[in-house]
Amino acid sequence: MPNARRAHVVAVAQYSNALKACQPSLLCQVYGTSKSLIHGLFPATCLLCLDPGQMPALDLCRACEDDLPVNSGACPQCAMPRPDPGIACGNCASRQQAFDAAFVPYRYEFPLVELIHRLKYGRQVAIARILGTVLAHRLCERGRPAVDAIVPVPLHAAREARRGYNQASEIARFAGEIVGIPVLDRVALRLRATEEQAALPASVRRVNVSGAFEALAGCVPAAVAIVDDVMTTGATADALTRALKHAGCRRVEAWAVARAVGEPAQP
Ligand SMILES: [Zn+2]
Ligand SMILES: [Zn+2]
Fold first, then answer.
1. What does the pLDDT look like over 175-231, one tens digit per residue?
2. Could you tell me which of 116, 45, 133 has the C-alpha nearest to residue 259?
3. pLDDT digits 0-9 by tens, 154-177
4. Which residues of 3-20 are buried (b: 16+ CB within 10 A; e: fewer)?
5. Residue 212 near residue 206 (C-beta atoms within 8 A)
6. How far, in Å, is the centroid of ligand 1 from the Cα of 66?
7. Measured in angstroms, how far is the CA atom of residue 88 from the centroid of ligand 2?
8. How would you classify the pairing of strands 188-190 and 101-103?
9. What is the dihedral angle through the alpha carbons of 95, 245, 166, 70, rounded to the nearest 10 degrees?
10. How far is CA 249 from CA 130, 193, 226, 254, in A?
């Protein structure tokens, strides 16, 4: 993103709290007003630069969507960037992830860090429409995904109650609507209130989420995609995949909006 444009987006983000009450989906939730009326009253406005958004109701302009940091050359197994596109990285070759493929189209960098932070901690649930839509746009570019359903990564009930929503479910809802795949929001549970993965060193993240999920046997289709906002080490996706496969699922893809890059994958 060019420097002048980046400075403008940063300035807009600093005043973003003033925009919260004007977000169409929040108004829909609060007042139960029809979406068409709300969208007529409040035309889509880019939350990053305040230019007009994309029709009919995406609060992100085309220029800002095009400027999002693309996770190019990613390992098809774990979505870590690597020099040889399309070939599994050394980490995946030596240590089997439970999930069968990963698709994470963006890197967890500016401005996605800010957007995801506002969604998770700023109660700006309307940002889920942006993230779900851009994830769906990138999925559609690859052709229709070969999965039967989308399963959002569940939050523990106590955390979801505190936050008021599960950001992964909200992202999945918009992505599923665009790609035409049903979202199964309640077939998996998070049994333990695990520590936030982002707060932990990579070495303990796998232990933190191991056995944390349960999927309802008989309710899970043969092929699903799990959806999260950010993939960091892949430990959360791995633990949820094991629960889904234990419940009878045969193939699991791990999708997320943004990949925390960290150390580059081994060639
Ligand atoms: Zn914009
Ligand atoms: Zn890999």
1. 999 999 999 998 999 998 876 766 667 667 777 788 889 999 888 999 999 999 999
2. 116
3. 999 999 999 999 999 999 999 999
4. eeeeebbeebbeebeebe
5. no
6. 9
7. 5
8. unpaired
9. 40
10. 29, 24, 12, 13
Ion ligand 1, residue ranges at CB < 5 A: 46, 48-49, 51, 61, 64
Q: How far is the CA of 257 from the centre of ligand 1 (A)?
A: 18
Q: Which two structure tokens, joined as six digits, stand for 52? A: 């007009």
Instruction: With CA atoms as reference, report the closest residue to 76 among 58, 52, 100.
Output: 100
pLDDT band at 246 (very low <50, low <70, confident <90, very high): very high
What is 231-251 written as a DSSP string? ESSSHHHHHHHHHHHHTT--E
Which is it for the CA torsion 18, 43, 138, 12, positive or negative? negative
Spatial distance between the Cα atoms of 187 and 215, rounded to a whole number of angstroms: 6
* pLDDT above 50: residue 21: no
Highest mean pLDDT: which of 2-6, 200-204, 262-266? 2-6
Q: Which of 49, 46, 44, 50 is nearest to 4 (CA)?
A: 49
Q: Tell how strand 223-231 and strand 251-259 pair up.
A: parallel
